[in-house]
């Protein structure tokens, strides 16, 4: 079999993608128009909301000059930094709902690719997804964070193992709780069954609101030897 020179791979890939778009136009998940490659048309992708440039480097909460927010200064979370793509508002929230409840799994691959492009240098990090409890996983059929994590790891050529972190307690949904009760709700909900040996970790979820769930997961991972934990989320919701 003839091996093509590396310099030709990207142009050929672009040509193949253009041909596929012409022959099999996909429908945009937001506007329904043709030409969505892979999930959104260029116009809808350009309309996705942006996070403010000035935000807390630890939790991605907006701040005046990009300094650490008061909450992270007073009670630092166990994760060390946050990489987020969008604010949790229309139409980004609609895409996340389409993945979680509409089983649009193509979005997981797209989110993972976008996060991989935005993620800073993390060395030989281990990618870990925020897990679902087995009962909830059985009902949904898949873990959206796990699918995003898988795509991110593939894009960045990082190790990903779906069983590093387990959810051993089926907690009440965080969205129905006041912010002050969320940390208590997830306390003791996670379990790690391996020695992480000082490795940096990328902890993936779809949405961060109060950060309590990611904080508890990061706490458990650090108890088992994680050297650092970078939270990587598709959307950052305002705490209020």
Give an overview of the whole structure.
The structure is a single chain. The chain is of the alpha/beta class. It is 38% helix and 15% strand. It contains nine helices and seven strands. The strands form two sheets. The chain has a five-stranded parallel beta sheet with strand order 1-7-6-2-3. Helix 5 (106-118) crosses helix 7 (144-156). The N and C termini lie far apart (59 Å). Mean pLDDT is 85; it is low at 1-10 and 16-24.
In short:
By secondary structure, this protein is of the alpha/beta class. The protein is 38% helix and 15% strand. It is globular.
Secondary structure topology:
Elements: H1 6-23, H2 42-46, H3 70-74, E1 81-87, H4 92-102, H5 106-118, E2 126-129, H6 134-140, H7 144-156, E3 159-160, E4 165-167, H8 179-186, E5 190-192, E6 200-208, H9 212-223, E7 228-236
Parallel strand pairs: 1-7, 2-3, 2-6, 6-7
Antiparallel strand pairs: 4-5
Helix pairs in contact: 5-7
């Amino acid at each position: 079999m003839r091996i093509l020179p590396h310099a030709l791979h990207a142009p050929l890939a672009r040509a193949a993608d253009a041909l596929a778009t012409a022959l099999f136009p996909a429908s945009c998940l937001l506007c329904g128009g043709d030409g969505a490659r892979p999930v959104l048309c260029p116009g809808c992708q350009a309309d996705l909301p942006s996070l403010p440039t000035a935000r807390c480097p630890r939790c991605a909460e907006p701040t005046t000059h990009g300094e650490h927010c008061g909450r992270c200064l007073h009670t630092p979370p166990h994760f060390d930094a946050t990489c987020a793509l969008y604010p949790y508002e229309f139409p980004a929230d609609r895409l996340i709902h389409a993945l979680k409840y509409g089983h649009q799994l193509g979005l997981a691959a797209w989110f993972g690719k976008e996060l991989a492009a935005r993620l800073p240098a993390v060395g030989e990090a281990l990618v870990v997804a925020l897990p679902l409890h087995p009962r909830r996983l059985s009902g949904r059929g898949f873990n959206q964070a796990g699918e995003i994590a898988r795509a991110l790891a593939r894009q960045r050529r990082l190790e990903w193992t779906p069983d590093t972190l387990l959810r051993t307690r089926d907690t009440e949904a965080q969205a129905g709780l006041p912010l002050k009760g969320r940390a208590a709700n997830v306390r003791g909900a996670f379990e790690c069954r391996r020695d992480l040996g000082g490795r940096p970790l990328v902890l993936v979820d779809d949405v961060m609101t109060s950060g309590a769930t990611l904080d508890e997961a990061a706490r458990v991972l650090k108890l088992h030897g994680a050297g650092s934990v970078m939270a990587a989320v598709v959307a950052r919701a305002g705490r209020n």
